[in-house]
Write a structure and sequence with these properties.
The structure is a homodimer.
Chain A lengths: L2 E4 L3 E6 L4 E7 L1 H9 L5 E8 L4 H9 L2 E9 L4 E7 L6 E7 L19 E4 L4 H10 L5 E5 L2 H6 L1 H8 L4 E5 H8 L4 H10 L4 E5 L5 E4 L4 E4 L13 H16 L4 H18 L13 H15 L3
Parallel strand pairs in A: 1-4, 1-8, 2-6, 4-5, 8-9, 9-10, 10-11
Antiparallel strand pairs in A: 2-3, 6-7, 11-12, 12-13
Chain lengths: ~300, ~300
C-alpha cells in the first residue's frame, strides 16, 4: 500500500565538531519519504523554490517517490542551519529562512486523496490538519511534531490529536506537552487526548510504544559513532509508517515490528550527513542489521 | 553456589518531594546482599556500630543472609542523608557521617574464603582490593563503583580493574572514567583495562553489557512511579551475581539473563523506601514481572 508523506523540504547547512556541509537535502518530508520508500511506494507533498537543486529531486525520484505533489513556488527553498556540540544530543539552530515555506499550504493531488497510510511529518499542526481536510478516509494517520509547536501552537496540536491514530514525539517533548515528569504518564495523558497510539522516542536510549492496553519498550541499535543526527526522527517516522503500509496493517503487533525497522533505518541515517547513507542503503543491509539487532537486544 | 557480598552498611535519611524517612537500612552491601539472596545463599561482610538497630539485622538474617562477616565496631553506624528532586534522576547528598566506616578494613571470615562468586559492592576501590587479597580463587568477581571513586581514587580503581571479571557502573560514570562521550566506546576502553565484561547502567533507559566480542542491550522495566531510587544500582549488582551463582556460570548468555533479573529486582526496589519492597518480594512476583517484561520488551 502507498504512503502519503507531507512535511518540510529544505536545504540544510550543518556543522559538527569535525565537519561542515552546505546545501544538503533536508526537511522532515525528505527524510521521512526516503525512509518509507524502503518499504512502500511513497507520495510526497511539499514545497520548494526554483533554486532547489535538480540532484535532490533526482535522488528522491530515483527511489520511486512520486513527486506529483512537490510544489515549486516562486522564491527560495526553506533553509536551516544548525551546529552540533561534541555531545550530539545537543544542537543549536544558527539560522532559519522560511522562504517559500512561509506561505505553504499543502495541496493534496486528487490522485493521492485515497491514500490509506498518511504521515504528517513535522510541520505546523495547523498545516497537518489541512492535509486531513483533503484526504478521504485513511486507515492509519501518524503525526510527528517538535518542541516548537508545543510552545507556540499547542491548541492546534491538541486539535490535531483528535484526528490522528498515532503521535510520535521525543521524551522531552512528551514531558513538555503534558507537564508530566514520567514518560509513561506523559504517554498515557497524550492517549487520553485522542490518538490510539503514542510513540515516544528517546534517541540513543530507544523508544516506547503505548496504546490504552499495551506497552512496548525497545532499545536503540547501539552505535559507536554518530556523524549527523539530523533527520533521524523523521526517518524513524517514515520507516514506521512504510513498514505498516507494506503489511497493510496497524495492529499493535505490526507496530512493534515497525518500530524495530524505524530504529534500524534511523540508525543508518546518523552514519552520514543528509540522506547520503540512506542513498546507499538496500534491503539486504537492513535485513543484516535487523538480525544483528535481534541478537544484541535479545528479541524474539 | 553462595555469593560473597562486601560493601557498606548504613542508616539512611531520605527526603523525596512527598516523603521523608529516617534511620532506614541502607548501604551498598545491604541492598546487594538482599537482592542476591533471592537467587543464592549470601555471605555478608561489612561493619556497623553498636547503634545498628536489631530489626535491620533481623531483616537480613530472615533472608538467610550469613552475618558471620558482619563486624560490630565501637562507635556509630555509617549515616547518609540525601534529598531527591522532582526528577528522581537528580539527588543531592545533605550529609555523610562515616563513623565506624572511616577505619573499616574488610575481614573475610575463613569460612567465606573459598566463595566462587564475589561482589565487591560500592566502597572505596582500595577496600575492594583488600577483599581480593583474602579470598582463594573466585570463579567470578564483580565490582560496582561510583563517581566519587573515579574522582578521588582513580588509580586504585584502575588497579582493581586488572583483578576483576566485571565492572558495573552507570553511563555518566563510564564517560567520566574514560573521557569518552559514547557509552560503547567508554565500555570498550574499560574492557581494555582488564575486566572481561562491563555493564553500563542507564537508569530508566536500561543497560548495556559488553565483552570483547559480544554486546547486549536491554531496556529498563517501565514504571509509572518511582518512590525511592536509593539502592537500585546495588540491587541490580546483587541480583546479577546472585543469578550467576544460582547457575554456577558466568558465560555471556547467562550474564544476559542475569541482567534481566538485575533489572527486575531493581524495578521492585524503587517502589518503596529502603528494603521495604524487597522485604515483601517473593520469587513468584519476580517470575510474574519477568513474564511481563519479556512481553513488553519483546524478548526471546
Amino acid at each position: 500500500m502507498p504512503v502519503l508523506v507531507v512535511g518540510s523540504i529544505g536545504l540544510d547547512h550543518i556543522k559538527t565538531q569535525t565537519e561542515e556541509h552546505a546545501d544538503l537535502l533536508g526537511g522532515s518530508a525528505s527524510f521521512a519519504a526516503y525512509a518509507a520508500s524502503f518499504y512502500a511506494p511513497v507520495r510526497l507533498v511539499g514545497v520548494v523554490g526554483h533554486d532547489f537543486p535538480e540532484q535532490h529531486k533526482t535522488l528522491l525520484a530515483g527511489q520511486k517517490i512520486d513527486l506529483a505533489g512537490l510544489e515549486v513556488a516562486d522564491g527560495a527553498t526553506f533553509r536551516w542551519s544548525g551546529e552540533y556540540e561534541a555531545d550530539m544530543n545537543n544542537r543549536k539552530t544558527l539560522s532559519i529562512a522560511l522562504n517559500v515555506f512561509e506561505h505553504f499550504s499543502p495541496k493534496i493531488p486528487a490522485s493521492y486523496r485515497d491514500t490509506d497510510f498518511v504521515l504528517l511529518a513535522n510541520i505546523a499542526p495547523s498545516l497537518q490538519s489541512k492535509v486531513l481536510d483533503q484526504v478521504a478516509k485513511p486507515k492509519f494517520i501518524v503525526a510527528d511534531t517538535m518542541d516548537l509547536w508545543i510552545e507556540i501552537a499547542r491548541k492546534d496540536l491538541l486539535d490535531l490529536l483528535k484526528r490522528i491514530d498515532m503521535l510520535i514525539l521525543n521524551d522531552s517533548e512528551a514531558k513538555a506537552l503534558t507537564g508530566e515528569t514520567n514518560v509513561l504518564k506523559a504517554g498515557r495523558k497524550i492517549l487520553s487526548w485522542g490518538p490510539k497510539y503514542v510513540t515516544i522516542k528517546k534517541g540513543e536510549h530507544g523508544s516506547i510504544l503505548l496504546s490504552a492496553t499495551e506497552t512496548a519498550v525497545l532499545p536503540a541499535f547501539p552505535l559507536e559513532e554518530v556523524f549527523d543526527p539530523t533527520g533521524a526522527g523523521d526517518c524513524f517516522a517514515g520507516a514506521l509508517i512504510g513498514y505498516c503500509a507494506s503489511k497493510n496493517d496497524a495492529s499493535f503487533a505490526t507496530l512493534r515490528a515497525a518500530i524495530v525497522h524505524a530504529t534500524l533505518v534511523a540508525s543508518f541515517n546518523v552514519e552520514s550527513f543528509s540522506l547520503r547513507r540512506l542513498a546507499k542503503l538496500d534491503t539486504a543491509q537492513i535485513a543484516e542489521r535487523a538480525a544483528k539487532f535481534k541478537q544484541v537486544a535479545g528479541l524474539a
